[in-house]
Specification:
alpha+beta
C-alpha cells in the first residue's frame, strides 16, 4: 500500500497543542472522539474492524527526528533515533498512519524489544507494560499535497521511565467508516 500523499518527516514538524476543553472550532466531533481517547488506539481499531486489522511497516530505521519531536523528547536535534512508520489497516483500508520516535537511550533492557516488533502493533507492547505512563495528548492538523487536511495526535509514552513519542494521523478512510458517502 502506498504511503499517504505528502506524509513525510516534515509533515510532523508542525505546531502541536493540547486540547483541554475541545470546542467545535478545534476539531470536528468525529475526530475529537478519536483525538482525545487515551486508551489503546490499536484495540479500538480492532474492535471497529471486527478483527479485520493489521499493521504494515512502511519504514523503520535510524534517522534524525524533527525539531518538534526532539524537543518533545528532550533530546538534541542532531541525535539519531529509531523512527518507525506504520499504517494501521482495517478492512483492507489504511485508517491511521503512525510515526514513532524512540531515542537510542530508550532501547535498553526490556525496551530493546521495541527495535524488533515488526508487524505487531506498538499498542500491544505499550498497553501491556505495567511501567507504561502516557503524557498529555497533543493534536495538530497536517496538510497533504492534495490540499486535504487530516487530524493527528501525539503523546509521549514512558516505559520504565524511558521516553518514546508516538504520532497518529487519522486518514480520510477512517471517517468513511463512520460517515460513508451516500
Amino acid at each position: 500500500m502506498p504511503i499517504p500523499a505528502a506524509l513525510t518527516q516534515n509533515s510532523f514538524d508542525v505546531r502541536w497543542y493540547t486540547l483541554r476543553r475541545p470546542a467545535a472550532t478545534d476539531a470536528p466531533l468525529i475526530w475529537r472522539k478519536w483525538l482525545l481517547d487515551s486508551g489503546s488506539l490499536t484495540q479500538r481499531l480492532i474492535d471497529l474492524s471486527q478483527g479485520d486489522f493489521r499493521v504494515e511497516v512502511v519504514r523503520q530505521g535510524w534517522s534524525r527526528p524533527t525539531r518538534s519531536e526532539a524537543k518533545a523528547l528532550g533530546i538534541p536535534t542532531r541525535q539519531l533515533a529509531l523512527i518507525r512508520e506504520v499504517q494501521l489497516i482495517g478492512k483492507g483500508q489504511p485508517w491511521v498512519y503512525a510515526r514513532t520516535v524512540i531515542p537510542a537511550s530508550t532501547l535498553t533492557g526490556k525496551q530493546r524489544q521495541l527495535n524488533a516488533i515488526g508487524n505487531r502493533s506498538l499498542g500491544s507492547v505499550l498497553f501491556t507494560d505495567p511501567t507504561m505512563q502516557r503524557g498529555p495528548l497533543q493534536v495538530s492538523k497536517l496538510k497533504l499535497t492534495s490540499g486535504e487536511t487530516v487530524w493527528a495526535r501525539r503523546s509521549q509514552f514512558r516505559l520504565s521511565d524511558k521516553p518514546l513519542l508516538v504520532a497518529e494521523v487519522f486518514l480520510p478512510e477512517l471517517q468513511q467508516v463512520h460517515y460513508p458517502a451516500t
